[in-house]
Amino acid sequence: MRRIASWVPFCLVSLAACSPPSAPPASAPVTAAAPVLNLKQVMEWVIDPAADVIWDSVKSVSTEAGTKEIAPQNDEQWAAVRNAAATLIEARNLLMVSARARDDKGWAAAARDLEKTAGGALKAAEAKDKEALFAAGGEIYVVCKGCHVEYAKHLSSSLRSRGPELASARTYGSHASQ
Ligand code: HEC
To answer: Residue 173's pLDDT is what?
Structure first.
């Protein structure tokens, strides 16, 4: 009995310590940080370099000596592709920040598709599947272009300059007949 009696006050003290008197700050709404880059900077400094890592990772390069097939060769190179894909996945959120989003229909759909197709590239990188990675790169390209045609008509030719490069990449491996 004596032991219980001395235990009870201890318990009350620890309970009091566990429940602070006022509401914890965790219940306060999280304040979103204001966007720093403008849309063009997000495109040129975040999205475009990440897409380039993916597009350059699997392709055929034709030289006088013949055709060379490029693909990630080691864990480090596969990780670099995975990281670029992760950047494009999260870029959906960068595009949907209210200061950047143009609407919640076509724009939101394109941003969602960017996340989805980049998700395919991430999966391919984790599986070290170069053909799946190549296919995902093509799907990403279609999304970039689709959004530009709708929302950045003035530059619809700037990505098209990559066309031949991608077209030659499309002949890679089992995709040759597609
Ligand atoms: C949700 C729509 C959307 C998606 C998806 C999108 N873009 Fe853009 N992009 C834009 C808009 C709008 C601009 C024009 C921004 C401006 O000039 O202020 C732009 C501009 C750019 C520019 C700058 C071009 C220039 O000459 O000024 C590049 C490079 C670019 N995008 C690359 C990409 C790539 C690569 C992808 C795909 C991985 C992509 N974008 C996906 C909407 C999008």
So the answer is: 26
CATH, range 35-172: 1.20.120
Residue 172 has pLDDT above 60, yes or no: no
Q: Is the CB of 107 under 6 A from ligand 1?
A: yes
Taking the alpha carbons at both ends of the chain, their separation in whole angstroms is 83
- Whether the pTM exceeds 0.85: the reply is no
Q: How is the chain split into domains, by residue range? A: 35-172
- Is pLDDT at 164 greater than 90 in this prediction? no
- Residues sharing a CB contact under 8 Å with residue 117, sequence separation 6 or more, in sequence order: 136, 139, 140, 142, 143
Return d(Cα 60, Cα 22) in angstroms, integer. 64
Q: Which residue, judged by its Cα, is nearest atom 7 of ligand 1?
A: 144
Q: Which residue has the tokens 């040129």?
A: 44
- pLDDT value of residue 21: 57
